[in-house]
Amino acid sequence: MDVESDNNTSEIWTEKALELKLGVLPNSLAVGTFRNVEVPIEVSLYENEPEVNFSEWDHASKGYFTIKSGSCAVFGCTDYLHDAAKIEIPKGDYAVLSLAKGLGSITEEWEDADDAYRVVLWPSSTKEYKVIKRYESK
Fold first, then answer.
1. What pTM was computed for the model?
2. Do you know which InterPro entries this protein is assigned to (predicted)?
3. Labelling 74: which of 83, 104, 117, 121 has CA 20 to 30 A away?
């Protein structure tokens, strides 16, 4: 979330966002995880669209957002914005890939599992919002 965002994040989880596991508002992103606990997440910023081997990932969605301040807050749904980790991201429009793997290791939501998440950002004016690869639990 852009630290200067005035988005109403209560509106981010639309039906489409739940399907994609990725909520988008003009200056905010919400990455949906497959468990309601703390999970490992990595955020990567690239100068151009990176090559991604989607066979390494169980679920992938693409979205977009705008950074207007140059600073982005990274926090969980029950965390406080004021306490959130901040990362510097140059102002501008970005494409976003939300990636998840290790989802087959989830047996119970609250038990340990090997799921991991990655958010990949790069400058782009493209406004794509879609599932690239959908995870279907067995």
1. 0.91
2. ComJ_sf
3. 104
